[in-house]
Each structure stands twice: as structure tokens, then as C-alpha cells.
Amino acid sequence: MYFLSVILLTLSLMLPSTIGARPRNKPGTADKAKGSAKHKKGAPGKGGTASKTQPAAKKPGTHRPKASKRLSKKEFRNVHGGTHWRIVTAHGPVHVWIPRGYKRKTAGIVIYIHGYHSDVDQAWKQYNLPRQFRKSRQNAIFIVPEAPQGKDDTVKWNSLKHLKKAVTKANIRLPNGPTVVIGHSGAFRTIVQWVNARLLKQIILLDAMYGGQSFFDQFIKKKITKLVIVGSDTAQASTQFLKKYPYAAVRKNIPASFNRFTKRQKRAKLFYMKSQYGHGQIVRNEKVIPLLLRLTPLRHL
Prior knowledge:
CATH architecture: 3-Layer(aba) Sandwich
Helix content: 25-40%
Order of helices and strands: HHEEEEHHEHEHEHEHEHEHH
């Protein structure tokens, strides 16, 4: 009985702290509090849990532009002894050709611009351009872009820099040498857009003085530039342009060989030749383009 009394007494002392005691929190409130804390800490989501895959917020000005896309090209080997690529661009095809023996470290760039009534693919084939480039024997990479096919057509390449970038996007490395632009007829509309290009050293106009004289004035007044003009249908406009420049060298015909040029004609900053060939013959007969490309600062192969 004594031991039973002790046990009952002990239980009576413990009951008030367990039975009938006021709970500190209502049922479930601890879980809600924990969930609330998680919700505040983490990213928005059910149950307040943070998503591990949620991307971090971008800071202003830290956007990285996508890398420039490469342009596709098709390669043709052994085209008149060189390598030919045809690049597809948003502004039309661009043909690129390098001769056998090409040395990029000492090379320059020649850009040929076709005239009206043909597109770049037609000009490439009809005028046998790679063969004419080979005959010039210049250490250069030759680029032939699309150009206006008529007076109502738009200029395709307003920037020489953008044209060069398009070639590099096709994974073709350009040399750092001088740039020479040669254009026929309506090509003047493209060329006048480029007269202030940094590396442009020489322009050759093949019966192309149909307009843009003020732009060619800007170009010829630069320190290290040269302008060569061939006149047939544009003979009158060309000679009118020359009147402002008494130092211009003039020749009454296009010679049969490079050795027929005088020293003054070879070195002249402004050189005009009256053509004995017709407007179309100038680019078709393969006698003019190879010859005049030797009047450039490019190195001979």
C-alpha cells in the first residue's frame, strides 16, 4: 500500500504539466511557419521550395550578343590554276578567287564590280574573270560581289567593310595589303559609296564615269591614292573631269603591253586612257583588265 500511494502521488504531480497544458502553437502552425520561411528564401513555387534550375537574374548591360553566323560557301579547285569559292550572302552571291602561288603575308585585295545587264554569276562566266585575274599575275585575293543590274536596281554593298566581313564569315582570311577596286559601267554607283574606305588605294573605272564625279574628287585628293580612267562611251565626261587636274597623265589608246606605258603614266596619281575598244569589249576581250591590274601597288607573282 505504501508503494501504491507513492506512485499515485507521483502521477498527480506530473499531470498538470502534460494534460490540459496550453499548447504553444496551434496544430500545423510550426509547419506553416517553416514553409513561409522557405517561400521567402527561395524562388516562387509550390510549398515555398526553391527551384535549383531557375536561372539567375541578369544584371543590366550584361547581355552577350550571339556569335556571328558563318556564311556557307562552295569550293572549286583548279579554276584557271587557282581556288574559287562562291559564298551565299543576304546581298547576293560573292565570288572569291586566289591564284596559284598566292602569299597572304604580302598580298592585296582586288574587288571587281560588274556593270548593268548582268548579275554576278553571269559576269563571272561570260567575262572569264578568273582567267583574266590569272593573266594579271598579281599577288592578290580577287573578290567579285553582286551589284546593280540596272538603274532601278539598288546598290547591294553600301560598305566595303561589310563586304570584307562577309568574306571572313565564310572562313576566308583576308590579307592586310592595299585594296584595289575595278569596275565597269554602272559599277560607279557602288564604288562612290566606298571612296572613304581606309585601305582603298586605287580605283580603276572601265568606261564608268557616268556620275559621281564629286566622290572621285574626294578620292583623288587623298595623299596615297590613284585613279585610272578608261573612256569609250564616257570619253567626254572623263575628259571634262580631267580639266580640274592639270597633272593628269593622258594616253590616246590602251597599249598592247605593259612596257608601252611611260614612266610618268605608270606613276601618275590620275591617269586617263581613251579606249579603242567598245564599251562591252573592254571587259570581254581579256586585254584591258589584266593589263590595268599591273598599274597597281600590288606585288607581281
